[in-house]
Amino acid sequence: xxxxxxxxxxxxxxxxxxxxxxxxxxxxxxxxxxxxxxxxxxxxxxxxxxxxxxxxxxxxxxxxxxxxxxxxxxxxxxxxxxxxxxxxxxxxxxxxxxxxxxxxxxxxxxxxxxxxxxxxxxxxxxxxxxxxxxxxxxxxxxxxxxxxxxxxxxxxx
Length: 157
Known about the structure:
Blueprint: H1 3-34, H2 42-53, H3 59-66, H4 70-82, E1 86-90, E2 98-102, H5 104-125, H6 130-147
């Protein structure tokens, strides 16, 4: 077996291990969201988080980021606006474009969710040794940095 094949096999094993262990982190993260109020679908929560990251994002940009058709995103935003979490406004650069911004209630909801997730992760980390915590943060930091090097269309292939 050549070195490249061996390296690919080792990477496959590592990717499977990370995937399996990441499920525990995702479960803790998701459980905190499920306990949050108001009850939001994962797509609604994703839309709020995107709006938080990109204030003023337009409907087309939101549709691209969530991977949904613009009419679907428009209806999604209708529901978030009706819940008082999001507002639509005319963009200053293009009057035909609609921008999205969180309301104070939307920001408060995301802040509360962030705090809930923080407490849930902290609770789990109490059972991890200090050395393993440092290794975990270093590994997650490296993973986060590497995501910038991967084209979104390549993920999941």
